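User: Could you walk me through two proteins back to back? I'd like the raw sequence and the structure tokens for each, with a short line separating them so I can tell where one ends and the next begins.

Assistant: Of course. Protein one, sequence then structure:
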Amino acid sequence: MTTDFQEWARGRQECIETSLQSLLPAAAIAPERLHGSMRYAVLGGGKRVRPLLAFAAGELSGGSEERVTIVAAAVELIHAYSLVHDDLPCMDDDILRRGKPTCHVEYDEATALLVGDSLQSLAFELLTGSHLADTPQVQLNMIKRLAQAAGSRGMAGGQAIDLANVGKTLSLPELELMHIHKTGALIRAAVMLGAHCGNKLNDEQLESLDHFAEHIGLAFQVVDDVLDAEATTATLGKTAGKDAEHNKPTYVSILGVSRARELAEELRHEAYQSLEGFDGDAVRLRQVTDFIIQREF
């Protein structure tokens, strides 16, 4: 990973952290417990991969940092809400997230449920309260895209498929369908919302960017599955080995670790191919791709 990219990524991560700190309600504002737990769930953790993708796509399309920052914050709030709900006893029942107790452990289940609800609402409040695109129609389409990515045709639907298939054997296409929804939809939304903050890209280029996002979304999940199988809890910041313990279908359970790693590399190559028409203008997207593939591998 180049020093140049590390400096760029650190700057964007600091930018989104500062923005989230200011956009989230202060813990001293009533209801204090809910607002404090929202800040607990969002701040001070995570690699901020989705914001990095939004910033990289925004740079490619000529979007202003002010616009992209709002989009990146909205996507990260949706992601954080999904983690809070995924960790609940009725879902994955986990006690550790980003190296600290999960939200329902630190507070309680009812509070964690409300945290997720509130973070999702705040995300859409941000998208509707700022001027993010050159035309109202583009901005409406951005809002619609994030809503679909979070809903039954995206992340929530993918989680439903996941829960319905615990203990079952899935084919590789079935597993990919699940993760196109569960993980890939929000990653694609991060890329495309960032891209729509600017106006430099034509329809063909936007389609290529969407193909890139689809491949990198799947690659992200493949790497996640390998890390869950091989990394330690201390490294992950969450409980390692949970997928195998719960008998959940993963890329590792279907393919084995070695083939899963090969698949991650194949998906990286396909993502790179989708960016060929952008030449050197997509350097940040390629660097974030490498960051995703190589994390703790």
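----
Protein two, same layout:
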Amino acid sequence: MEETFIYAGGARLAGKPQTRGGIFRLRPGDDHFEKLTNGMPDDNDVYTITIHPQNPEVVFAGTRLGLYRSLDRGDHWQALALPGPSVEIWSLLVHPDNPRRLYAGASPVAVFGSDDNGDHWRRLPDPMIPNRVPMPFACRVMRLAADPQHADELYAVLEVNGVMRSRDGGESWEDCSAELIRFADQPRYKNHLVTTVEAEGMLDGHALCVNATERVTVYLAVRMGLFRSTDRGQTWRDMEIGRFSPLTYGRDIRIAPQDPQVMYACLSPAARSETGAIYRSQDQGVNWRPFLHSVTPRATMMSVALHPRDPSQVYGVSRCGQVFGTQDGGATWHELLMPEGCRDVYTLACA
């Protein structure tokens, strides 16, 4: 089994100074997470972690204070200068065909591009997506993904504003949310917790990924479940995860790097809950089965991390800082807690 570094990132809870944010690392063989602070502000909140697919020494962290990069697996960090006013970074994508080209997704909604592994950045044109849901926080680019066969075709999911697509590497964007909004014409898809917009739940996007085995398929995780599009985001179909799981709040969805037939999803009752699950599909999302077992999540499952080379290794994290891992393809699981005070964990990565 390949030795694995695991990284987790979280934020402090508003009004609770005793809670802890930041980025944490578990080294191979260790039994505890260490907080990484050399160059990373101690009070920073971390929303996304991306390990470079061609060089695991290089790790990116999207945070409340912008984007950071480490060239030595997290021992040291440097802030990367993004043009314009300060923004939060919630997502990062490495271009599938050009590993030096990066995209970063921000809040308020913006996408930045770099052609030199993050040394220099430019703000890409404004996506011009109308703000349809007046939430108490600025809308966020939660996940960026590229079509593996046409790597300049990008997709982004927004919290809380649906999906957008670029056909030209981020130079222009199209709104792909009309069909998601139409779902809310049906009573079962109407959901609004914060606003009066009945499509709030359908537009509350958290993750997406793109599969291109036979035809391009975009998979989407939103508050109301899991959805897919086989026409590049023009129309969407409910994957009906409720047939397989009593939990339908979709927080993460990923395709296995080694086998595009295999997918994983994080499911929970709500954004803040007392349970959660990881489900796996072995037929591109047609059928799903529980994957996480013998351990008990005590909060919403927020992220699933797949090892880029070893398919037997899968990791997940709950919002309260429980990290679950299997090194034998799900036959057995172990649990490890992040340091005391980690109560709002967003992201997990491994390599």
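The mean pLDDT is 97.

Let me know if you want the two compared in more detail.
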